[in-house]
């Protein structure tokens, strides 16, 4: 069976089955690199579990950008809405508990989205200018509120809040040994991990981190991926929202209130970003509101949106791709696993070069091969990588995707374009 026939067979499978195959291939690559580099951090349960947590704010910001841009409004203010969600989430948790804090954080982010919608939809302000204004204003608002409120709390200051509470955790019964009515179920994945079977044990170890000791907030966040896909592609609301981003004049001719749907899309983007900010303030990451701790996740979420081709599943894949090296870097004390990521990049680029060559795309094949050669030389010549390498990897990945796959990316046709009722 040729590779082309195999690729066609994979594409004929349901979407969930395709993603499972892609994930298994990814774990296989990591498993091979682990053997070559003699490290064990790439497929450990602690790394995959940390990846889930680090990915959540990126994922939620990306999904927020998805709703906004599908409605035709560019939202680069997602980082500011994360800040608002983080502050209000921490304040709400301190005063009313973690679940109320989550809701208040969502409302805080939604207010930022509302401001962006008023500026861009009602008054026709340039989307980039409005987004930059929110980026600048949100940290200032958070600092002012911290000065007025958090400085009066024990453990609070102008730059941080007191510690906040978390929500409950969940472990999958049977798969990861979760409890059922006080009875501890078998740990199937743990058993396979302990058997030390090549690839199978690594796959079980990764899966164990994805199914054990999960925050309920994490589970809710990931549930938004299928929910978003269903809403956008299976409901009348989703169709009308997408019309706003593709051809609002045609939607207007069908009697759709374009302004209303643009407002909803942008406010939803703020609400999802607010959820992400509240998650950052939760014990899953910081455990407090801390000024400057969003770490550009709003921008990385936008990057995940772009390489995910403005689709929920693609946003999830992009967010996981970005969250993985960040999580690995925070737990890789000796730097061996982070260094071995260079070898992962080499293997991926070699496969990309072969793929491009088979499609007679000589320029891309040579470019991918050249970057693979430089990455391999770096891997061989150095025993470790600098600390900044993990931080810039998301942006490097975006550049590579734009270079090699830009022709496959398609943003909504009217995204970022001004719209005035009746102009058509």
Task: Name some characteristics of this structure.
17 helices, two-stranded antiparallel ribbon, 4 strands, 424 residues, mainly alpha
What proportion strand?
Answer: under 5%
Straight-line N-to-C gap: 53 Å
Q: How many β-strand runs?
A: 4
- Range of helix content: 55-70%
Note the run of SSEs as H and E. HHHHHHEEEHHEHHHHHHHHH
Structural shape: globular
Structural class: mainly alpha
What value does the Rg take, in angstroms? 22 Å
**Spatial sequence of strands, sheet with the most strands:** 1-4
What is the fold's blueprint, element by element?
Layout lengths: L2 H9 L3 H23 L7 H26 L7 H19 L1 H25 L4 H22 L20 E2 L8 E2 L2 E2 L3 H7 L5 H12 L2 E2 H19 L1 H11 L1 H6 L4 H24 L15 H11 L4 H20 L4 H23 L3 H20 L6 H18 L19
Antiparallel strand pairs: 1-4, 2-3
How would you describe the overall organization of this protein?
Strand 2 and strand 3 form a beta hairpin. The chain has a domain of 239 residues. A two-stranded antiparallel ribbon has the order 1-4. A two-stranded antiparallel sheet has the order 2-3. By secondary structure, the chain is an all-alpha fold.
Question: What's this model, at a glance?
Answer:
The chain is 70% helix and 2% strand. It contains 17 helices and four strands. A two-stranded antiparallel ribbon has the order 1-4. It has a two-stranded antiparallel ribbon with strand order 2-3.
